[in-house]
Structure formats: C-alpha cells, structure tokens
UniProtKB/TrEMBL annotation:
Transmembrane segments: none annotated. Belongs to the glucose-6-phosphate 1-epimerase family. CDD domains: D-hex-6-P-epi_like. The lineage of its organism: Bacteria, Pseudomonadati, Pseudomonadota, Betaproteobacteria, Nitrosomonadales. It comes from the Bacteria. InterPro entries: Aldose_1/G6P_1-epimerase, G6P_1-epimerase, Gal_mutarotase_sf_dom, GH-type_carb-bd. This is Putative glucose-6-phosphate 1-epimerase. It is an enzyme of class 5 (isomerase).
Length: 305
C-alpha cells in the first residue's frame, strides 16, 4: 500500500483539537499534535519525532535550526530511528549509516486518544519502503509514539519470515539542554563503553558523564535509566528504557559540528546532547522467525532546585 496523501490522512486519522497532518514545501507530511499536555511534530519520513514540548516546559527534544526537511535525507535533531543497523553497515560501506529506516516514508496505521488525554500514533514501515538489496527479510516494523506530559516511543520489530535475523537499532534522541558545560549524565557509572573518539577502545565509565570535548561512546550491557542533570534549566530529563542493552552518548563538539554544517551555528552543539537507547555491537538482537522484539523508551522531566 503506497503512503496516503495528506487529505486522506486527515480524513482517516486526524483527531479534532489534537492531531492533524500538514504537508511542507518539500512535500513531506508532518503529524502535528497539540493536546492539553504537550505539543509535538513528527515527520512521516522516518516516523521521525522532530519536537516534543510539554505544556509549561521548555522543549525536551533538540531540533537543529538548520535542520533540512528533504526527501531521503536524515533530519538533524529529534528522534531519528536507526534500523536495521546502527552506525556503519557491517559489510557494505555503500549502505546508509544508521540504516535506511530514518530516510524512507512510513505510513500511519492508527491514531487514538488515551484515557489520560495523551495522543498515540502508530506508524508502520511499509514493505515498499524497504530496499530488499539491503534488507532481504520479511518483517513488520512499527513505531508507536505517545505524546502527553511524558513521551514514549516504542520501536517494534516482528520477524514474519522463516529465518532468524539480527538487527542493530537506536532511538538516536537529541535532547535540548541549557549548555553542554552545565550538564552531567548519570546512570552509566561503572559501565563499559566503546570509545569511538579513542579508536573504539573499551573503557570503563568513572562517575557521571560530563562533556568538555567531542564525546562519542557506545555503552554496552546496560539497561539502566539515564538522567541528564541540567543545572542551567534546573531540571533532569529521565530516559527510561526497556528492551535496550546499549546506550550511546554523543556530542560532536565544535570542530565536528562545524564540519557537519547543520547545527545552526558555531555554538549549536552547546545546546544539545544525544543519549541514545540502542542495541548495537555485542548487544545486537537476534529475532527468531515468528518472534517480536520491542525497544521502548519513556522520556520525562523532573524539576530540581
Ligand atoms: O550516535 C553517534 C553517531 O554515530 C556519531 O558517530 C555521528 O555519526 C552521529 O551518530 C550522527 O550521525 P548522522 O548520520 O546522523 O550524521
């Protein structure tokens, strides 16, 4: 089934006063959610949450001021879905980094208001969007996004074929922070990480994670919650995950951010940090034929003095 046009989407899935679909100048379709608890925008390309702002709260998710909504290109910021591999493909360098899921059209299969007033949308990756040369496996992939005073994203992979397959994945979430010099990340103390900046050396995290240069770390074998403790915004952002044994912490710092060119300004990197709930490296997931795997994350705010 080819992705629906914006008029049909509004006829089938809009929720008066909560959810509507719009089309931007490049023809990309955006789900716009505004309920009594929060506002959010989600691109149907990649089922990519771009913004999330609880009522009365500063934005939780960072979206680059220079983010480009271009068909087939990843969006800088938000919650990119990295699937069915994380990072470079294991054997073919011509395949897209972080998989293809974040740059292809997804479709809507359901929208609903939950009893607590939050809005839930279910996205599905249509077979027509899956490049069979890169991923020759029968599967059903869905992302269920719930927008309320908290946000949850659940990435569900069902193996509908006859053979086991293995996936790498991540919700590559960019968080809005007061200043990279005013935060620390807790929950990873004592964990082993692969240090991409240090030639993938395996190291052990001592204490909270602080950032004073480029940081690109894949923490393995950890199912812990992480907290971004932001003294500037006097708040913590809690990242509570299930079905994920890897956590990635990334800030490109000035040189790499400038080279990437889509962080908005020379200091754009100061206002963001990625804490990614993933399954990568030794935590890649084998999904047997007929089985279903879920990666589920809840993002919430805790105020501090
Ligand atoms: O998750 C960290 C990372 O793998 C970094 O190494 C950097 O490549 C980042 O993802 C962004 O990747 P992207 O393909 O979105 O530019």
């Amino acid at each position: 089934m080819s992705p629906l046009d914006v008029t049909t989407l509004n006829q089938k899935f809009a929720i008066p006063g909560q959810l509507k679909f719009t089309e931007d100048v490049n023809g990309l379709i955006i789900a716009c959610i505004a309920n009594e608890q929060a506002q959010s925008t989600i691109s149907l390309q990649g089922a990519h949450v771009m913004t999330f702002e609880p009522v009365g709260e500063k934005p939780v998710i960072w979206l680059s001021p220079a983010a480009k909504l271009v068909r087939g290109k990843s969006i800088r910021g938000g919650v990119p879905i990295c699937w069915p591999w994380f990072g470079a493909h294991a054997t073919d360098s011509t395949f897209p980094g972080h998989g293809f899921a974040r740059t292809v059209p997804w479709q809507i299969v359901a929208s609903e208001v939950l009893s607590d007033g939050s809005t839930r949308i279910t996205f599905e990756l249509p077979q027509s969007s899956i490049p069979v040369a890169q991923w020759p496996h029968a599967c059903q992939v869905r992302s269920i996004v719930t927008i309320g005073k908290e946000m949850t994203v659940e990435l569900i992979t069902e193996n509908t074929g006859q053979m086991m397959f293995e996936i790498g994945e991540a919700l590559h979430t960019y968080f809005a922070i007061s200043d990279v010099n005013k935060i620390r990340i807790t929950g990873l103390e004592g964990c082993t990480y692969l240090d991409k900046v240090g030639d993938w050396q395996r190291r052990t995290q001592a204490g909270a994670v602080t950032i004073a240069a480029e940081v690109d770390r894949l923490y393995v074998n950890t199912d812990s919650d992480c907290l971004i403790v932001d003294s500037g915004h006097k708040r913590c952002i809690r990242i509570a995950k299930r079905g994920s044994l890897s956590t990635v912490v990334w800030n490109p710092w000035v040189e790499k951010a400038t080279k990437m060119g889509d962080f908005g300004s020379d200091t754009g990197y100061c206002g963001m940090v990625c804490v990614e709930s993933a399954n990568a490296a030794e935590n890649c997931v084998e999904v047997p034929a007929g089985a279903t795997h879920s990666l589920h994350v809840t993002y919430s705010i805790e105020k501090t003095q």
